[in-house]
Amino acid sequence: MENTTFKNEKIIEKLNERFYFISFNAEQKTSVTFKNHTFKYKSTGKKTGIHELAEALGTVESKISYPTTVVLNNKKEIVFQYPYLLKPKEFLKVLNKIE
């Protein structure tokens, strides 16, 4: 999505005007505090792992998929969660419905 959807001018404009956008690497090792909880990277094998925040926000039906798009409201509640690639037109429709 970084090479397609997030390079689309309309998407960038909408995200910059109406949203606080974060692209989060589910394998990052830096701890993140969110909603008064510190989420950390957890190893799942010798060279594999997942960040607890990615797992908390991106798990859909007990599975984590990449990419997963998550939109939170101003109360930091999930209002949209989609565990597959979103093309620019699809994502723009989602953003227009949410705002």
In short:
With 99 residues, the protein is an alpha+beta fold.
Would you kindly provide a written description of the structure presented here, covering whatever features stand out?
The structure is a single chain. The protein is an alpha+beta fold and about 100 residues long. The chain has one domain (about 5-99). Helix content is about 30%, strand content about 25%. The chain contains 3 helices and 8 strands. The chain has helices at about 10-20, 50-60, 90-99; strands spanning about 30-35, 35-40, 40-45, 50, 60, 65, 70, 80. The strands form 4 sheets. Strands 1-2 form a two-stranded antiparallel ribbon. It has a two-stranded antiparallel ribbon with strand order 3-4. A hairpin with a 2-residue loop joins β5 (about 60) and β6. The protein starts with 8 loop residues before the first helix and ends with a helix. The model has no long low-confidence stretch (mean pLDDT about 95).
